User: Fold these one by one.
Assistant:
Number 1:
Amino acid sequence: MSRPLRFLLAAALCAALLVMLAPLALAASGPPPGWTKIATGGLGNPNNGALFGFVNFRGRQYCFVPATGDPSSGPAVPVWTWDGTGFAKAAADGFGDSHNTALMPVCEFQGELYVGTTNVTGGQIWRSPDGSHWERVDLSSILTPNDDNCQPLGVQDGRLLLDIDNYGGTGSRAYSYDGATFTPASTPAYGMDGQSVSSAIVLQGKVHMVLNRRNAVGPLPVVPLAYTGGTTWTPTALEGFGDAANTSVYILRTDGVTSTAAPATSTAPRYGASTAPAGRRSTSAR
């Protein structure tokens, strides 16, 4: 299963978990109290099964649409924004490249919006000072064969951290970026068979993410990590949040005080939320 589709599945199951736990009595029909529908019909494409808001930039909410077709052939992913009254496209689909089939989580750095893509010919990073005019960041010095996801992780100590995923055997890795130069920010595969990462958060000044791992035998327990400088990422919880069956996490969120992840198990379709205050180890609630 491709990473965008796993991202979609994880997000859907996270949402289901929240609905199950929320102390709300939803009406039998119609929208929940206080909610208004703002889009229908998949924004013109009935194959759009999900839309995730990522970041506010220059008064607009920028959104992520998972891949709706074959990652090798498209269609190119649309770049949607919401200004409070309606949706509009902020760029040509796929930034003009039909192989850009999904957008990664985005972040602001040095006054510009940075967006990563999934692309079978090599993931890309695009940036914009205003959300309308876009420039492709040159990654030629750091890309290798089979790199297909580029994801901005967040800003720490004045530098942008980004992850590049590689499913061809070399694993994922991180770089820091000062706006002109890339510097390795991890060892290959994070030194622990890393293949991809969850969406990241910045919590009390540090970038946090969850590393999804795989070796020649199969998937391994995930490892929650925080960036601590150089090429070092420090575990913030036990492998798999204490459960070896927790082998993937694609959604990580924070309210500024705690971080929450929803790990998926390799043995059954059971999901659990793991939450921990900053600086403490997370524990899995199953």
Number 2:
Amino acid sequence: MEHRAAVVIGGGAGTGRHVVRQLTAQGVSVEVWGHGEAPLAQAVADGDAVSFQVVDVGSPESIYAAGIRAASADIPPTLVVHTAGIWTPGDLAEVTPEKVGTHLAVVVAGSVHIARMSLALFGHGPGHLVQIAAASAKPGFGDTALNKLAKRALDGLQEGLAKELRDTSIRVSSIYPNAIAAPGSEAVLEGTAMSHSDVASAILFAVNAPDSMDVDELVLTARRTGRW
């Protein structure tokens, strides 16, 4: 599937910014979404993106409003890459109810609303939604209870959407990395983490898959780590 325009959510920093750069290098017109205006504006100023929208992933109203604006572009996006999210530290007994609510609103409900917005944006297709989950969604990878709960919900979202969209021209893919760090960092050099650019390259592999195949899931592990 060839994409002329894309939205990258969380595209102002980290893995999302590297996805933006790689898509732009392929000639895709990219709009970046995120909660902080400064890094989004910088992505546009640097020539990595053509436009941006400030979007609160924890707010359904913000997500759907941004989707309506994106649909009115001269070239509506046929690709949405969702890299935004949060990680909440602490055992479940230590996490406040407010933090539990925020975590689930952003990671779980936010991803559901982004999926619904993407389907509306794509219409009858073609289209491709790619989301970053985490390896902790799969058995054998460690994390705290709240984070595992949220990421396993994304795993269920992937499974359900893949079945619902199987007979359509819309694809859905999920990427499950276990440890990410800045390129050139000690963890990356030691092999205990992969870089943001590495994960972006895996996302582009899914995006550029031939029409004869779907990349439903990619579980990514740093070289000196593993599932068990």
Number 3:
Amino acid sequence: MSSYDPRLTEWDNSVAEFVEVYRQIPIDRRTESIDGGWSAREVLQHLLEDEILFATRMRAAIADPGSTIVPLDPERYQANLSYALVPDEVLLESLAALRAVNVGLLRALPADAWGRTVQHPEAGDQSVELIATVFGDHVSDHLSDVKNAELGTATR
């Protein structure tokens, strides 16, 4: 067991919990804005996009250290991709499956590989560890938003 295993388990569990919470939101309320921002559905779409981005950045850092990665513009992704045509269950299953693959790859990494880096054009060097931490914790951040929203799942 590596020193990263507890974090990897937490990151994997956060997606499972997000999927469970999301499924509890009444279908007709999933597109309602949360506190004037994104809806639960938009959060789901965003998390899948981020997981795809995480997957590519992580793989670049592991397999092609020193390469340059592409910055993310989440608003552009939301505006230009037709996620509305993709059923919720497909998005949820894709998010869970991709997270499981990403965590599996990270579990298999030797300790020294966590320090490999890629170049972000705006943020500079980013290590596998930094990339994994940012994206691993990201689901938990949005999970709190969805849980606390007035979407029929919030505790009062």
